[in-house]
Write a structure and sequence with these properties.
Strand content: 15-25%
Number of helices: 13
Order of helices and strands: HHEEEHEHEEEHEHEHHHEHEHHEH
Helix content: 40-55%
Number of domains: 1
CATH topology: TIM Barrel
Distance between the termini: 67 Å
Radius of gyration: 23 Å
CATH architecture: Alpha-Beta Barrel
CATH superfamily: Aldolase class I
Largest sheet: 8 strands, parallel, barrel
Number of strands: 12
CATH class: Alpha Beta
Shape: globular
Structural class: alpha/beta
Strand order of the largest sheet: 1-4-5-8-9-10-11-12
Length: about 350
């Protein structure tokens, strides 16, 4: 009588394919890693404000500050020392300069234009990205001009084109329209080209959702009170929609966008993946203020391991298909990555 189980059968009853083999050793995990985070993936947002010798805490964004222009040089030198490739400026405009049409946005000596010039003097090679939208400059907190009680798309475009041009003249490398008006990328591209700025790039906030995650940012730029409980639903995207996002991307690319942004980031990883799979273009996530503040707040409470949670949150964007990430964690991450090379 044959034995019911011989030695060979017993061995073969175990799995031939063992996924854990590649995970057993550090060297092997490095060899099979599918995605990696580098300093080259980082864009750092910097808030700027009026006054002298100011480094103001932003209460809803622990660890993040607003800098007056006289303190900006030191911050630019620090970011440059970390080899972060690009920064993005966001202004806190004085209330006395805010108007219904946001005309301070087209002042050639406004905070953003002055900050660009300072940065280029300190480090001409540091990339500068400038937000194009009116909400930091309007007394109602909206991204566009209000006419007959609604956001007037085409009137807003006229101002956005002027805003883009003065930023390019000041030395901005990448224009980043975040207003979500229809047709703005094409008109901005035409304006830049007609004025000789054919090599200034456009990184469009092509997919910007009407999100609850923007609250701390609005505190930082001082638009929370102006906006109050008003909605941006008539121009920012509905969080329930995804196919619409692909249409927005396609339109902006056809109008001349060089790169695209999905905002917010982590709640919309599926959108990032769809964009990259469908269009194969440089795609960026903005890990927005609400995402930052949730993570940082939990770190400060001792609920998360700081390094692990930050890196895990950022590698999720790379895994979804991002070319890079706009993140307030950029200096922290860059310091760690740079030290690993030593």
């Amino acid at each position: 009588m044959k034995e019911p189980h011989n030695k060979l059968f017993s061995i073969n009853s175990y799995p031939r394919v063992r996924m854990r083999r590649n995970r057993m050793h550090e060297f092997s995990r490095r060899l099979v890693s599918e995605n990696n985070l580098t300093v080259d993936d980082l864009i750092y947002p910097i808030f700027i404000t009026y006054g002298l010798n100011k480094k103001e805490k932003i209460n809803s964004m622990p660890g993040i500050y607003r800098f007056s222009l006289d303190r900006l040089e030191t911050e630019i030198k620090y970011i440059s020392s970390l080899n972060i490739p690009a920064i993005a400026f966001f202004p806190q405009t004085e209330n006395k300069l805010k108007t219904s049409d946001g005309r301070e946005a087209v002042n050639k000596n406004n905070l953003v234009c002055e900050a660009i010039r300072i940065s280029k003097k300190v480090n001409p090679e540091l990339g500068i990205i400038c937000d194009v939208a009116l909400d930091p400059y309007t007394d109602h907190g909206h991204d566009g001009v209000i006419i007959d009680n609604h956001i007037d798309n085409d009137k807003t475009l006229e101002i956005l084109c002027q805003q883009s041009l003065i930023q390019a003249e000041a030395g901005c490398n990448i224009i980043a329209p975040s207003d979500m008006m229809d047709g703005r990328v094409g008109l901005i591209r035409d304006t830049l080209d007609k004025n000789g700025f054919i090599n200034v790039q456009i990184m469009s906030y092509a997919v910007k959702y009407a999100s609850a995650f923007y609250g701390p940012f609005r505190d930082a730029v001082g638009s929370s009170i102006n906006l109050s409980n008003k909605s941006k639903n008539s121009y920012q995207m509905d969080p329930k929609n995804s196919d619409e996002a692909l249409r927005e991307i396609e339109l902006d690319l056809n109008e001349g966008a060089d790169m695209v942004i999905v905002k917010p980031g982590m709640p919309y990883l599926d959108i990032i993946h769809k964009v990259r799979e469908n269009f194969k273009v440089p795609t960026y996530a903005y890990q927005v203020s609400g995402e930052y503040s949730m993570i940082k707040g939990a770190i400060d409470k001792g609920w998360f391991d700081e390094e692990k949670i930050i890196f895990e949150s950022l590698i999720a964007f790379k895994r979804a298909g991002c070319s890079g990430i706009i993140t307030y964690f950029a200096p922290y991450v860059a310091e760690i990555l740079n030290n690993r090379k030593i």
